[in-house]
Design goal:
Layout (H helix, E strand, L loop, with lengths): L4 H13 L3 H13 L6 H13 L3 H10 L5 H14 L2 H13 L6 H14 L2 H13 L6 H13 L3 H10 L5 H13 L3 H13 L6 H14 L2 H13 L6 H13 L3 H10 L5 H13 L3 H10 L5 H13 L3 H10 L5 H13 L3 H13 L6 H14 L2 H13 L6 H13 L3 H10 L5 H13 L3 H13 L6 H13 L3 H14 L6 H13 L3 H9 L7 H13 L3 H14 L4 H13 L3 H14 L7 E6 L2 E6 L4
Antiparallel strand pairs: 1-2
């Protein structure tokens, strides 16, 4: 029998339909034995077979041997790496394809935009947007959807909405993406507004749309809109859809209405594991850990996520010992289980234990992911364990996460807080793509180290890159102005935040401005600023001004401010200690004696200081007064 190329193509397509990798490999071996070259349609079909059967490495070997690659060859591989989550390789191949003067099609553009979204590579995504316009494909609905998604995931929600509004034709995916974009940013009102507009234009929401908008309601505890959406779900006949009903369970639970969450859960016919997990998480999030455990034990079957949900429930409620016990009992611990436990230990102040558990994870041959590294690095940060942080950095490189923005941001933060600001800068400088968090971390690092001028320079560079600052950015910028004594710049950036960026100041921003004025010696101006604030000042803000009084030896103002703090938080030792030091420095011995007596009468004791030291990669803690 004389084999033809078309015969192999049909057989390979059959392997794809049946997900028969072994059969596909036999066909590949047979065509090699018969002298066929994997080029053209045959080569592309072979590529597609390996990709669809889940072996991208084998597909890459075929791809590298194809002598004449067409747009289809390149697109299959670009899409494969994007789906695999390897955005860096996907974008690299796209750039190589363009360098070969091969014009991308809509599928190649869509895949590389997905890679940009994964890496939050805004600048690269904007460049691809221009290429799409030049190609005359900007009105393709699927491509426009991919662009909206890319801009949203890269933090440019304004650009995403601008593009969405300009789309001549929008489908249900377009609307769902825009709703999801707002929901991810915590902008629940905007998500609900788009959902209403969608219905006004006669577009019927699907199950994903309902789940997305319910997620927006859940994030900000928007109960009333969530209940209205529930009514729409019932009218649409989706109240038996397990996916939608699980989203309803989650929404009601996060809004604290556990009775309705339970009713929705009970209405699901033969609830799947995901529904059980949602209800367990709901009880745990609301502090009802016993009910969560009871439901967990009643599950007819559990997956690894069920165990992880329960572990997360314990750590959210600060019950670390029971979380660890359940973790030990988990039958098939995967990367998510390990990561959840490591994150829980870190968040509850058990940094040493988190680092030790990470070491056990590595010894157990469980490969960490980006979330694992991003969870253990803050443990190094909290303990100032620089050497351990360096070891983890090496493992990040070994595991191929040196291009992961999430991990690199955590590394920048770790090095900065462990005192190595130059290493933080080198990592930031070498990053090919940066998101809002990247800029916030490096700006915060320089602010923390007292580099006021450099912090403001970075802030300007951030704006020039097209990234919009958020409330976290301004906390760092105002803090830098405070440490550098830049009062005018502090006022300028505070006003820029409110007037231009339309960010409503939080207590933290007001505290930073008080610190700016206080450190510069403008004590009366700082007090006046506090009294004119639209929000009631807290004890922390007054304590900041009290510290400034000590710095500038203003004893009279210190006494008045201390009284405000004592009223707001009478059991906090720090203002008493501060005032004692101010009186001692000013020679006010009688006042010093009175304040110490007041502390004794109220049973207030100064909290001993705690120091950490890293010896032979082990971290040891010491309390003030240890013998």
């Amino acid at each position: 029998m004389a084999w033809q190329s078309s015969t192999y193509v049909c057989l390979l397509q059959s392997s794809v339909e049946n997900m028969d990798l072994a059969g596909g490999k036999r066909i590949h071996a047979h065509l090699n034995q018969n002298g066929f070259t994997a080029d053209g349609v045959l080569g592309n079909t072979l590529l597609n077979m390996y990709v669809k059967c889940g072996t991208v490495q084998d597909a890459r070997k075929v791809f590298d041997k194809i002598s004449e690659r067409d747009v289809c060859s390149w697109t299959v591989m670009i899409a494969a790496y994007a789906r695999l989550g390897d955005g860096f390789e996907s974008m690299t191949l796209f750039q190589q394809m363009q360098s070969k003067q091969i014009r991308p099609n809509e599928f190649a553009f869509s895949s590389v935009l997905s890679a940009c979204a994964k890496l939050q590579a805004l600048e690269k995504g904007m460049g691809i947007h221009q290429d799409i316009i030049k190609s005359g494909l900007e009105y393709d609905v699927a491509l426009a959807n991919a662009l909206v998604d890319m801009y949203a995931k890269c933090g440019s929600i304004v650009k995403a909405r601008e593009l969405f509004d300009k789309m001549p034709k929008r489908n249900v995916v377009s609307w769902t993406l825009m709703i999801n974009a707002y929901a991810r940013q915590g902008l629940a009102s905007e998500a609900l507004s788009v959902f209403c507009l969608m219905q006004q234009e006669g577009i019927e929401p699907n199950d994903f749309t309902f789940a997305t908008v319910l997620s927006a309601c859940a994030k900000l505890g928007y109960l009333e809109p969530g209940e209205e959406i529930h009514e729409k779900i019932v009218r649409r006949g989706l109240h038996s859809d397990a996916f939608v009903m699980s989203s309803l369970v989650d929404m009601y639970a996060k809004c604290g209405i556990l009775e309705k969450a339970q009713i929705c859960f009970e209405k699901i016919y033969q609830p799947e594991v995901v529904s059980w997990n949602a209800m367990i998480a709901g009880y745990a999030q609301n502090g009802l850990i016993d009910k969560a455990l009871k439901l967990f034990r009643a599950m007819p079957e559990r997956d690894v996520f069920s165990w992880t949900t329960m572990i997360v429930g314990y750590v959210q409620n600060g019950i670390v010992d029971k979380a660890l016990k359940l973790f030990e009992e988990t039958p098939h611990r995967d990367m998510f289980s390990w990561t959840a436990m490591i994150a829980g230990l870190t968040q509850n102040g058990h940094g040493n234990e988190a680092i030790n558990l990470f070491a056990q994870m590595v010894l157990s041959d469980v490969k960490p992911d980006s979330n694992t590294f991003a969870s253990v690095l803050p443990a190094c940060t909290s303990l100032a364990a620089l050497e351990m942080g360096r070891e983890i950095h090496e493992k990040i490189i070994t595991n191929g996460f040196q291009s992961d923005i999430f991990v690199m941001n955590a590394l920048i933060d770790m090095y900065a807080k462990c005192g190595n600001i130059l290493k933080s800068w080198r990592i930031f400088e070498q990053m090919q793509w940066r998101d809002l968090a990247s800029w916030n971390v490096i700006i915060g690092a320089y602010a923390m180290h007292g580099y006021g001028k450099k912090t403001l320079e970075l802030f300007e560079q951030m704006k020039d890159s097209g990234m919009n600052p958020d409330h976290i950015t301004f906390v760092s910028v105002l803090s830098a102005c405070s440490h550098a004594g830049m009062v005018d710049e502090g006022y300028q950036h505070f006003n820029y935040m409110t007037d231009y960026c339309h960010i409503t100041p939080t207590m933290e921003h007001y505290s930073c401005m008080v610190d700016v004025l206080g450190r510069a010696g403008h004590l009366d101006e700082a007090e006046d600023f506090i009294n004119k604030m639209p929000v009631k000042p807290d004890a922390t803000m007054w304590t900041s001004l009290l510290a400034a009084c000590r710095m500038h030896n203003n004893v009279e103002l210190a006494g008045r401010i201390a009284e405000y703090i004592f009223e707001l938080d009478p059991n906090d030792a720090s203002p008493y200690v501060l005032l004692s030091n101010i009186y001692a420095a000013g020679g006010r011995w009688a006042d010093l004696k009175n304040i110490r007596k007041k502390m004794e009468d109220m049973g207030i004791k100064k909290t001993p200081g705690c120091s950490w030291i890293e010896v032979n990669k082990k971290v040891h803690g010491f309390l003030g007064g240890d013998g």
